[in-house]
TrEMBL record:
One of its GO terms (molecular function) is rRNA (cytosine-2'-O-)-methyltransferase activity. It comes from Fuscovulum blasticum DSM 2131. It is an enzyme of class 2 (transferase). This is Ribosomal RNA small subunit methyltransferase I. GO terms for cellular component: cytoplasm. Its main location: cytoplasm. SUPFAM superfamilies: Tetrapyrrole methylase. The gene is rsmI. The keyword Ion transport does not apply. Its EC number is 2.1.1.198. Residues 246-288 form the RsmI HTH domain. Keywords: Cytoplasm, Methyltransferase, rRNA processing, S-adenosyl-L-methionine, Transferase. It comes from the Bacteria. It catalyses: cytidine(1402) in 16S rRNA + S-adenosyl-L-methionine = 2'-O-methylcytidine(1402) in 16S rRNA + S-adenosyl-L-homocysteine + H(+). HAMAP family: 16SrRNA_methyltr_I.
Length: 291
């Protein structure tokens, strides 16, 4: 298998540096051709789960040969980062793959990137599968602005605080959840966000039993009451509705913002904060700036 050309690398080879390889979240064929090239050609391999990466490589006919395969997970990432930096400083190419999906997105890899950057080494993204993006494309909800909120905390007090913070976010929300807690989370979201907020529950994405349930938070919560669906779950929830803002409130907010911000920044801040159209805020901001 030929190598993958990357900026700064030798023609047909794998460039020195840390390569973050996105791996399938279900179907093994979802890995990119470039991802396969990097796994085949990198001098050092690192993985959140070495068994999973070995299996993926076997499926695609990639031999490990005598290359080191280093486990790097939540419990040893900081310690392993030092070993990775030593390899990078020796001019080697290092590939890191999380168990499934894109490294760093609710998966290990952050400490590796920070260590590589601090050491002045190059970091390369090898993009591909992502449960966040897959869920967004299937949910049927707005995608022009979204917030990935990771997992909802398990402790009751922390859950209530986080859901209260997310309730007013003017962006589509993407949340990971376990099968054991998804019914509880949907019920608590219905209470915190309102039962009529549109949402989708995406389960087992790209796998044989893929399922997408769409409806309101109240409907989804009722449908899952007393159930514990199997598999990996992503919840996608529509953004908070724009608040009704009076002309006086808009003027006051812009006057305050213009004291410390440019017109452009004030418009961006106020329109997002109050949920008003940017054109309306911009027109009034220009009038206030000229006074």
């Amino acid at each position: 298998m030929s190598g993958s050309w990357v900026p700064g690398g030798p023609p047909g080879g794998i460039a020195p540096g840390l390569h973050l390889v996105a791996t399938p979240i279900g179907t093994a064929r979802d890995i990119t051709l470039r991802g396969l090239d990097v796994l085949a050609g990198a001098e050092v391999l690192m993985a959140e789960d070495t068994r999973t990466l070995r299996h993926l490589m076997e499926i695609h006919g990639i031999a490990l040969d005598r290359r080191p395969l280093i486990a790097c997970h939540d419990h040893n990432e900081t310690e392993v980062a030092a070993r990775m930096v030593a390899a990078l400083e020796a001019g080697k190419s290092v590939a890191y793959a999380s168990e499934a999906g894109t490294p760093l997105v609710s998966d290990p890899g952050f400490a590796l990137v920070r260590a590589a950057v601090a050491a002045g080494q190059r970091v390369h993204a090898v993009p591909g599968p992502s449960a966040v993006l897959a869920a967004l494309t299937l949910a049927g909800l707005p995608t022009d602005r979204f917030l990935f909120a990771g997992f909802v905390p398990t402790a009751a007090g922390d859950r209530a605080r986080v859901l209260a913070e997310l309730a007013a976010v003017p962006a589509t929300l993407v949340v990971y959840e376990s099968p054991r807690r998804v019914a509880r989370t949907l019920a608590e979201m219905a209470q915190a966000f309102g039962p009529d907020r549109p949402a989708a529950m995406c389960r087992e994405l790209t796998k044989r039993h893929e399922e997408v349930r769409r409806g309101t938070l109240g409907e989804l919560a009722d449908a899952l009451q007393g159930q514990e669906p199997k598999g990996e779950i992503v919840l996608v929830v529509d953004r908070a509705a724009a608040r009704v803002t009076s002309a006086e409130d808009l003027r006051t907010a812009l006057e305050n913002a213009l004291q410390t911000m440019s017109v452009k920044d004030a418009v961006a801040f106020v329109s997002q904060d109050l949920g008003v159209p940017r054109k309306e805020a911009y027109r009034l901001a220009l009038e206030l700036a000229e006074q």
